Amino acid sequence: MSSLRQEVPEFWSFFIYNLTATTNSVISFSRSWQRGATELAARGHEVTLITGYETKENVTNLKTIVVNTHLKGISANMFRMSEGSMLWSNMKFDNYLLSVAEGTLSDDNVQALIKSKEHFDVVILERLRNEAFHGFCAHFKAHCVLSTSMPASRLINLQLGNSAPPSYVPEMCSTFSNNMNFFERLSNAFAYVFLTIWYRSYMQPLHNNLMHKHFPDVPDLSDIFHNISLVLINAHTATNPPVPLLPNMIDIGGYHIRQPEPLSEDLKAYLDSSNEGVILVSMGSILRSAYISDSKREAILNALGNLPQNVLWKWDEESMPNQPRNIRLVKWLLQNDVLGSVFCQFPVS
Fold this sequence. Notes:
This protein is an alpha/beta fold. Helix content is 36%, strand content 15%. It has two domains: 13-251, Rossmann fold (3-Layer(aba) Sandwich); 265-344, Glycogen Phosphorylase B (Rossmann fold, 3-Layer(aba) Sandwich). β4 (122-126), α5 (134-140) and β5 (143-148) form a beta-alpha-beta unit. The two termini are 37 Å apart. Pfam families: UDPGT (PF00201).
């Protein structure tokens, strides 16, 4: 395992790949690492950011590579993907993200970067079942840093050799908490073993082939898979259950939060006039409202419609069937600014 604890230059050259932001629907994920990239650049580092959206920040030493040419046809119904058993959900998710990896590496702008003679000291990869992108680290001969927008997953723990007992660390796509009964622990342990075998025997070879297709001169994936210097985890002990973490696995939950900006006059008036307060409902931009099944939507509406509070719901469509009076729809809003209002009581996300 390589280490960042050595004599280094005052200013580094960073390459940041924001995986989840390269699919067209997840701008909210994109904004978090755009803030991180902007902050690094503002401190004097040279930063290259691959993302799905242009950054609005005007920083001279921040270069943005927008990936969109090969990903426009790649989308996912996350509600449907989560249906069925946790095994089936994980397998569908793996195959979906493999198509995202293929589309990204085939992008003309990314190909130009790979073929360039750019130098990077550090490569930061958004880690979400995208093993083929470890080729960036080997290709640029840079320290490999992983970031994750959720608590450390089974694969990250396996990658770093971190202990994450399935007796109290639930598998991704499961409905279990960290306080499982015997049968839940048994089911979670079975999923842990099965999905690890599935990954090692099926998904890793596919990513290895994809990596060598675009990085023909790098070592085998199995040889570089564990060469990780640092993991940045979007979690916090105040909001997430306690789990074992190695010293180079760092919780950075809340790093992207900024001071709220003034709301629009219309939105401010709505919040100010809500005597009982406002509940914010937002599934982010990865869960599209149109994909919610009728039965789930009606169940949510029945619960929210009987509350005394007003409800501000980020909804992608122009209208909502059977919309209660206390629910207002907005196509886009910045959660950070709404949550900063004293009238916003709590979010549902």
